């Protein structure tokens, strides 16, 4: 059941492992419960504990909670400057000159978390060319600006 | 029985002179996400002018900002929430909440649920209920944004809370209500006394159910953003007499509620409730209830 989550975590070369016994799937959405919550979670809950992400069309879409958990471990990460932070949460890609620090893989095709200078996870992207080359080097896949972008669809 | 003058006359009889108000936007810092991040300093460094709200521990008024405080990375990271000033009061009134089993009976859109989780340091468990799917989605987004870990959400009418077969230490009952003119420009045109009475009846049903799922030594914090006594003092007077609840003393912003409503004398302990007339905040009413020892 947790394969999509573990596969996703591995993309960042992270070694964190979640307690599989406490992961619950509900309509293709995954939640990590505490032992205390587990005792109160009936089958028909709407949301519970830590939301980890969802599977849609066989693809895993992580939550920002899961990305933050990965970011606290050894993993592929880049730290970006303030201007790039703003552009990234607006959905833009990361340019080489906006990166102030790199941890883990710099290889094309790999995934990396994007952190601000406070070490807070803003989302993740795919490395599209070597991180020391000029131009856009990380394609934005998901960023916390999504919380705002969810609003209009909610109103429909 | 409706219209602006009708309601203003009622407020006058309750001892308040009507005045138009312009509410200040307020934020509340989420302490559990701020152990390392000083969000107030970060916002100030971006030019956001904040004033500490004197009667709230973690509340700030936004005096001036060049951009929406609902679109900063600090907001999106859950370091703070946008929450109306008076709405920040109820969750703070419980005696203690850490490790407690807490019911948020009418939870969406989730501002107070997040605040409760913050005050609980993500310990214990919160069971959050609401009936509207869209509002539950908004609640879920808030929980994810603010990194809440201790909450289970059910699509459930609070009047059915006993179906959960759980007894709670703490119950936050921020009841669905008629609202007030300070947050709704069209309030006087839209509301009638009939609406108010309908909401008051619903609130009684929820109060009754909440009483049924409360542990003997538990606490209910009841609040509304209505100024109408039918939804506030009169409902609490009913709860004292019919549900055998008692009103506990609270120490927060607001004035003592009146024990004399339109000539009707209420239980003297109603004075322990707080009524907040619009001005620094929106209109609000809040109190803390517990079971009488004799009822145990």
The end-to-end distance of chain A, rounded to whole angstroms, is: 32 Å
Helical residue percent band of chain A: 10-25%
Number of helices of chain A: 5
Order of helices and strands of chain B: HEHEEHEEHEHEEHHEHEEEEEE
Helix content of chain B: 25-40%
CATH architecture of the largest domain in chain A: Roll
Q: What's the gyration radius of chain A in Å?
A: 16 Å
Which residues of chain A form runs of ≥5 with pLDDT under 50?
A: none
| Count of β-strands of chain B | 15
Task: Give structural notes.
The complex is a heterodimer of chains A (156) and B (296). Chain A has 156 residues and is α+β, with helices and mostly antiparallel strands. Chain A is 24% helix and 33% strand. Chain A has a 6-stranded mixed beta sheet. Chain A has a 4-stranded antiparallel beta sheet with strand order 1-2-4-5. In chain A, strand 1 and strand 2 form a beta hairpin. The longest helix of chain A is centred in the C-terminal third of the chain and has 10 residues, at 146-155. The mean pLDDT of chain A is 93. The mean pLDDT of chain B is 96. Chain B contains 8 helices and 15 strands. Chain B has 2 domains: 4-14 and 85-295, Vaccinia Virus protein VP39 (Rossmann fold), CATH 3.40.50; 24-83, Alpha-Beta Plaits (2-Layer Sandwich), CATH 3.30.70. In chain B, strands 5, 6, 7, 8, 9, 10, 11, 14 and 15 form a 9-stranded mixed beta sheet that branches. A 4-stranded antiparallel beta sheet of chain B has the order 2-3-1-4, covered by helices on one side. The interface between A and B is medium-sized, with 32 and 31 residues. Strand 3 of chain A pairs antiparallel with strand 7 of chain B.
